[in-house]
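Q: I have two molecules that I believe assemble together. Could you output structure tokens for the complex as a whole instead of separate predictions?
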Amino acid sequence: MTIEETDSSWITRGGTPAAPHSGRLHPLGLREVRLRPGFWQQRQNTNRTASLNHIEQWLERAGWLGNFDAAAAGTLPGARRGREFSDTEVYKLLEAMAWEYGRTGDPGLDERYRAIVRRVAAAQEPDGYLNTNFGRPGQAPRYSDLEWGHELYSFGHLIQAGVARARTAGHDELVHVAVRAADHVCEVFADRGLCGHPEIEPALVELYRVTGERRYLDQARKFVDRRGHHELADIEFGRAYFQDDVPVRDAEILRGHAVRAAYLAAGAVDVAVETGDTALLDAVTRQWHATVARRTYLTGGTGSRHQDEAFGEDHVLPPDRAYSETCAAVGSMMLSWRLLLAHGDAVYADLIERTLFNVIATSPADDGRGFFYTNTLHQRVPGTVPDPGQLVPRAASSLRAPWFAVSCCPTNLARTFAGLAAYLATRDDDGLQIHQYAAATLATTLPGDRRVACEMDTEYPVDGRITIRVTESPADPWTLSLRVPAWAVGATLDGTPVTPGWNRLHRRFSPGDVVVLDLPVRARITTPDPRIDAVRGCVAVERGPLVLCAESVDLPVDVNALQIVPQLTERDGSVFATGRRVSDPPGSWPYNTSAFSGESAGEAPAGDPGEADGSGRPDGTFELPLHPYHRWARRGPSTMRVWLPLAPSAVHREPARAPENPAAQRPDPTPEGTAS
Amino acid sequence: MTIEETDSSWITRGGTPAAPHSGRLHPLGLREVRLRPGFWQQRQNTNRTASLNHIEQWLERAGWLGNFDAAAAGTLPGARRGREFSDTEVYKLLEAMAWEYGRTGDPGLDERYRAIVRRVAAAQEPDGYLNTNFGRPGQAPRYSDLEWGHELYSFGHLIQAGVARARTAGHDELVHVAVRAADHVCEVFADRGLCGHPEIEPALVELYRVTGERRYLDQARKFVDRRGHHELADIEFGRAYFQDDVPVRDAEILRGHAVRAAYLAAGAVDVAVETGDTALLDAVTRQWHATVARRTYLTGGTGSRHQDEAFGEDHVLPPDRAYSETCAAVGSMMLSWRLLLAHGDAVYADLIERTLFNVIATSPADDGRGFFYTNTLHQRVPGTVPDPGQLVPRAASSLRAPWFAVSCCPTNLARTFAGLAAYLATRDDDGLQIHQYAAATLATTLPGDRRVACEMDTEYPVDGRITIRVTESPADPWTLSLRVPAWAVGATLDGTPVTPGWNRLHRRFSPGDVVVLDLPVRARITTPDPRIDAVRGCVAVERGPLVLCAESVDLPVDVNALQIVPQLTERDGSVFATGRRVSDPPGSWPYNTSAFSGESAGEAPAGDPGEADGSGRPDGTFELPLHPYHRWARRGPSTMRVWLPLAPSAVHREPARAPENPAAQRPDPTPEGTAS
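A: Yes, here they are, computed for all two components at once.
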């Protein structure tokens, strides 16, 4: 292709992540939606002013950027640093910088960007291949380890970075590098081959969208269709790990490695909408719904298994061993966004909102220089403060860490925050749809050259009032569509009750017209599906789009021994429940056999109502502050839990305990008899 | 040392695993306690007639035995097969064969044994070093990877095998090999160094016990004292993985890799009792009690984490991701047995019984040619039948597999079954203590050359009656001590009520005297500590020492959607509860916000009482058969659960659900509105 083939309209609009040629809704560009001061702009600013530098410094320091220099200098493999996929962190930083440049046009940023691109470009080989970990003497041959080598995954992120640049600057050295890489991939993988980590699929479709080069779309379709036929070798975790167990069209639910699953599904949607393949689109849509119903945390997070960073079976959603990788949340948003554009249904924006406020907002430290890799819903043991100068070998930590041996999450967040405004709103032929509520300005052009623009003011999610003031409008009617979140029962639109889902105002608007949506942001109690074993007998507290949690720094008792009396109060914008401490069971064997036999057990006392814990009340209860989950672990090491066990007296009665039963007391720490 | 220093009394008594010089109780030899037809003899026979051959064949076939030949032939590393610790499976087979020979004196077995020993011995190097994976050109240098190399672990199992041979045959090529290996270890590790996998510690103490060579005990003490001081490098799982986080004397609880933790603790007890180090013994005793109280499954299994085969935090005992490795159960028994000998308390035998019947008996297939590596308490998805000719790459399976890439469990079971009789009884100066009930004969000599012998008859655990007939007795009084298990409230001894713990009969016995212990083997309901989040609102059913479970092959509903009405009946020796199916919650988002607010929720209906499922009763309930957990997955692929959620009507009432609430129904699989 030639870069001239790039759709120049994207450049003037500031670019957008994911730009399908068809679908119910069309994305806006990063210069069409701009965040204003508020919850998300603060995070986007921190990303721009702190995280991008922080990442760039770590990429230098860890030597992952230097790997490209070493490739050009011919000093690999001896000089190589980092894991087999470390190149991709550089590409994701470049993608983040591209979106950031697209919305700001900051020349200083562009200069830093070009400097990195020069180093990357210098490492590309004459035939388009580019990877610092393979193919040189002393390294494994190219494509000798498709299961674990991440080579196509790496090309995928390179191409995504090139696409971001093409959409925000139109032409660049990196775009040429990406195109040459894509051409190389199409040549080598024309007839067979598959990567253990999906990512090349959405990347190639996006490059097709930018360049119009059909060959990239065809190659992406081949990759999607090839998967699920045991093309890859079996591995310890099984082929489901990289979704090579069942073809995409036949699968019923997302499974295996959560990030891989999401990236593949996103790529499959991209292929489906560009080729008009409704069967494929339907398959992924079905999988999304099944995954939301059975394999998604309350936070929107996915992936419960530490061992293989994977989905568990249906309803296996342990809060304390939640993996809920930050990157899986990014992947989930990529998928939901594509389905939202394709179908237009509010449910996808509901999940995006949940994921944004409860995973994406949770991961980064306030200063933008630390990150959660995993996002547990129950921290049992306080962690230690990571050394800011140290790379953290372990993904799980109770405190945000500056960098990881596998550091995919910081760069994934960076590209997401840089392009975040794109998720707020869309247009169709008839008007604007607002998906996410944040202080922002929106301005776009509807077909027929009809300019529409508005300002959105809100303190959301602290407050539920959203005020939209029209600032530009054509003379004829158009439709302003507002999503009422699924949780927002009791919402009003200009004072009139509205129900969750889309609420559409089709009318003539004039500049200065104001629309007011009131979402009932009040603390509420949420109960789990009874098949989620891990949280049976617990409730969670939510407030608006925010999941709340209890954190040890606010508590007189161990969070692991906490029970809740679920009567909520709100005071000065804070939420309180009533807590109590689990009474100690008798004995030191944690399982108790008693005379319990069904109904009669209900008559037994529910145990000691609680011990005095300093701050307690006469009845042993205490005030239990609940804070937004995304704020946890920002006051030093702590323990935390989202799901709160109900105190027995609150809802049900526990089976009788019989402390006088000697069987219940043994084994006992006091030796109770010896043989001599 | 010279082999002549070996305590020849052990040889005549058939040998025993673990033979401390001091302690409250003294073990009996494998020719002093003999199993007779019954539950355990059947398993010991299967081990002898099937598993030992099966293991030997797989060791040949997988090439792990051949590694020793290749070492002798100088064709390593090219010819090497298996993981870095594969040598140890050969050693554990040799240990199993040694105990088996000790109790049977089978010359055919001895011949096979000697043939393997010749191959092992040929691979030992002149300085005593022996490991097929290190030290040759093209291999990593000796001791270059103490964290993961398993070299000292490997020596530990070699020495244990040598000890077993010394105790059962007195002298042998392998005993010499083991002694030379131990001398090498003492020389190289005199001043520093530690193995990532404990095992050398108990092995060296046991070799000291056999040889009297104090140097081995001193070296074991050094290894125990060295650990916990960050001698090993930090790793992804943290130093707790190999217990190098906290010194053994300072630790409060077992942690990290469950097998490593148990082997180390067993070695620490060995060091403590041989050196009179009561502080060290107290430390491990305290850790045992804490671990039993907070980190042990109902089955006696330990280790909840798949990722690092490790203990989780306190009360983290998920049934569905239970790892509960078979080898961890073996290690737990080794530790409990040593503490039982040291202290004499019945609690240790209680845990051994629980572990024997619910993990050790669960792992092997009926034909002795398949094994569970992990022992989950909740199987959510039926597995596939393993190919009997295939090595299984994955540890977790819903069916017993013939061999594993890491195949530690089959050989660990083999050595345990071969020496199983040793765990039944002990003696002290005044008499016999019976710890485990099984059909058996017991005969030993008390100090003063007083012969005591008896026959134990029982159908235990199906039936709770144990009849002990004295067959030999001195004229003066002695004490017969019988353990009443902690669960056995209501037991009688010769018709008189007795309580759990030790019950001692001090009297003059005459041959022909009979003592009858009746243990109340009836189904009972067990509730968990309320801090075990993963099984809140559930009960388990136990019967005698057996944990029971529900298995899908007996059920009209999905085991994951099962609830129990906990009224138990027993019929023809089988146990039945009443089951019902979880009613489907509304909508496809698994979390439900309603008007629920504490007490008032108790008034709401508990939902659909259940759907007709073919075999159901008019009220939607059905008969729910419960079988011993150790019998599960013996009727083909199935799902299974030990912990059974209580039906809401059984004990408590669930929070109100509001299916009419539209918020509870979204996201919905039916697109509910589009923007075009």
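A: One point stands out. The CA atoms of residues 295 and 314 of chain A lie 6 Å apart.
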